[in-house]
Structure formats: structure tokens, C-alpha cells
Amino acid sequence: MKKTFILLLVVAVAAACAREPKFTLTGTIDGAGNETVVLQKRIPGGYQVLDSATIENGTFKMEGVVDYPQMVNLVIRGKRGGLNFYIENSEITINGHADSLYMGSVSGSATQAEYDEYKALLDGSNAEMTKIYDSYRMARMDGNEELAASLEKEIEALDIKQTEIKKEFIANNPSSYIAPAVLGELAYYLEVDEMESILNKFDTTLNKVQTVIALKDRLVQLKTVAVGQKAPDFTLNDADGNPISLSSRIGGDTKLLLLDFWAAWCGPCRQENPNVVKVWKEYNKKGFDVFGVSLDRSREDWLKAIQDDNLTWTHVSDLKYWDCAPAKQYAVNAIPANFLIDANGVIVGHNLRGDALAEKVKEILDTK
Predict the structure, then answer these.
(1) Considering only Cβ atoms within 10 Å of each terminal Cβ, which end of the chain, N or C, has fewer?
(2) How far apart are the C-alpha atoms of 208 and 293, rounded to whole Å?
């Protein structure tokens, strides 16, 4: 009897183990030889390989376990372009062509299906954005600044529309594994209080998601450079190698200082520069100034961009790209980024772009 009980217990444990959640990823890749497919996920600084398999007769199979549904990338080793999709512990099927795997189809992942529905919410505005942006580029190339300015306002309006769609999705899906990724897309635009409020409303099941962990860590850092906080001081060299501190540019004749993080290689930064120049020209004599911090790697590119864009204010850089010390100090992970600082060294604005910068500067300086 005792032996029978032990045998039954062993069988029960084995059955339970067999039922443990896992993913089974089966793929059919047309046009592929005996090549290797690699399943990987993005991590800071690159990718982490999760698994790999050889394609045999156009098919492959992988099995494994993930802690939670997450975005992964499937590539054919040696080929460019891969398929991004959400993997979870289920039976997932991939169909695609070796020369265009990024266009492949995914079935069997409920999280991927949810992600497809989320992307569909943005399809209309994305198509409209592409059309307007093409017209905007042509207007700039033709020197039609009036039309370019009008189209820029349309782009800004679409940005706002998309932001609201994303916020609504997060609010309606606080336990969705898509929500952290959407919040990551919004993080640049959110002030500390709003980001904290959104994170606090997430279901506790999302606490293990790496994006949520990273955003909570970032939130701690953002609180030190939030509106109302004293701007942390730092010192960097200008183009001539002279050390210049942020604090040396605050106060005195400068009633408002825009701490502007940018780079010559950053397209959106270069597009925003004319707006900053316009505000500087209009309000410099009233006490507005700019302190530019470049995330460039090339001194030549940095100085050429300053000249080409007519940026006549103080510029500093350590030419260390994303390892720029002040950028890390100010929790900058996307550029352009800026902080508006008053004469007392207190941050009074954050990431003000386009008309928003001019309106804020006017609001403050016209009351002084």
C-alpha cells in the first residue's frame, strides 16, 4: 500500500510538472534554407538571446518559459530586419518569408492580438501624420516658412491626439502587459505627478515587468529635477575648453534660463532649434537666455550645427553622446529635452517646445 501511494505521488508530481506553463513557438519561413533563427529581446545596450533554432524544410520550433508576456524579436542570423511580437506561455505560430520576416504573421498570443488592437487605434492618425510631415519637409525645402509653421501646428495637434489615445488605453487597461510599453512611449511627455499617478494605478501583476521597474527607478530620479525643484548644478567645457557651470548662468541679468539638451545628429532637435532661436531673439533683452548641452560625439559636427542653426548662446559638451554626465543627472533619455529655470535657480518648466516655450516665457517675463 505504501509503495502504491508513493508511485501515485510520483505520477501526480510528474503530471503537474508537465502542465507547467511554457511557450511553444512554431514557425514556417518561406524562402529559407538551413539557416538559424534567433529569438531575442531588447535590453539596455543591445539584445539578449533567449533561444535559437535551425530552419529545416522551411520550419523551426522552440520551447521555453517566460515570466510574463513581453516583446521579443525574431531574426534570421545574418539577415537584416526581424519580426517583433509579444511572446507568452502559449502555443504560438509564426508565418513569414525569409526576405521580409518583419512582415510575418503571429497567432496564438493573446497579448500580441491585444497589441495589434492597440496599434489599430493609432493607424488613422499615423497615416495623417505621415502625409502632413511629408508636406512639412517639402515646405521647409522650398523655404515656405509660413506653410511649414502651419503644418507644424497640425503635427503638434496630432501628437496631442495620439497622446490622449495612449493615456485612455492605459487608463482602461491597468492590468494589460501592453500598458507599461505604452507608458514608456509617453514618459518623455509626462511630469512627475502624472507618471506617478499612472504607475500607482497599475495592477500589482505588472510590478515584475522590467519596464515598470525601470520607470519607477526613473521616477525617483525625475523627482530631483521636477518643476519646483532647485536645478542641480554641473560644470562642462565650452568649445574652447573653458569650464562653465550652470549656476554661473543663472540670476543677474538672466531672469529665465533654458537648459537645452540637444545634438547635431538629432533631427527633432534641429527642427526645434528655429523655435528656440525665435524666442531668444524676442526675449533675450528682457532676461531670457539659453544654456545648450550637446550630446554629440563629434566636435566638428557640434560646432557646425551651432553655426548652421544660428545658436548664438552659450554651449557646452563633454562629447560623450548618451554618457553625457548632465544628461544622466537630469534623467534625460530622449532629446530634445529642456528645463526652464528662474533667477533663483528653480525649475519652472520642463520640455517646453514650439509655442509652449514662447507662451511660458511671455507669461513669466511679462509679470516681472
Answers:
(1) N
(2) 35
What are 77's three cell numbers? 542570423
Q: Per-residue pLDDT for 4 more than 70?
A: no
According to DSSP, the β-strands at 337-342 and 347-350 are antiparallel
Task: Answer yes or no: are the C-beta atoms of 323 and 285 closer than 8 Å.
Answer: no
> What distance in Å separates the CA atoms of residue 259 and residue 289, rounded to the nearest whole number?
9
Distances in Å between the Cα of 368 and the Cα atoms of 147, 184, 286, 362 are 34, 38, 10, 10
- DSSP alpha helix (H) spans, 29-144: 110-141
Task: Supply the DSSP symbol for 230.
Answer: B
Reported as a pLDDT band with limits 50, 70 and 90, residue 80 is confident
Rg (CA), the chain: 26
How many whole angstroms separate alpha carbon 165 and alpha carbon 171? 10
Measure the CA–CA gap between 145 and 149, rounded to whole angstroms.
6
Look up residue 231 and give its three cell numbers: 536645478
The domains located in the chain, with CATH, are: 19-108 (2.60.40.10), 111-225 (no CATH), 235-365 (3.40.30.10)
Burial of 260 (0-12, 13-18, 19+ CB in 10 A): buried
- The C-alpha atoms of residue 249 and residue 316 are separated, in whole angstroms, by 12
Note the helical H segments in the chain: 2-18, 110-141, 145-172, 179-186, 192-201, 210-222, 267-283, 299-308, 325-329, 355-365
Measured distance CA(234)–CA(332) in Å, rounded: 15
Query: Which residue carries 493573446 as its cell?
Result: 110
The mean pLDDT of the chain is 91
**Bridge partners of 72?**
85
Measure the CA–CA gap between 187 and 201, rounded to whole angstroms.
Answer: 15
Q: Which amino acid is it at 147? A: L
pLDDT tens, residue by residue, 140-159:
888 888 998 899 889 889 98
Q: Which residues of 100-133 are buried (b: 16+ CB within 10 A; e: fewer)?
A: ebeebebebbebbebbeebeeeeeeeeeebeebe
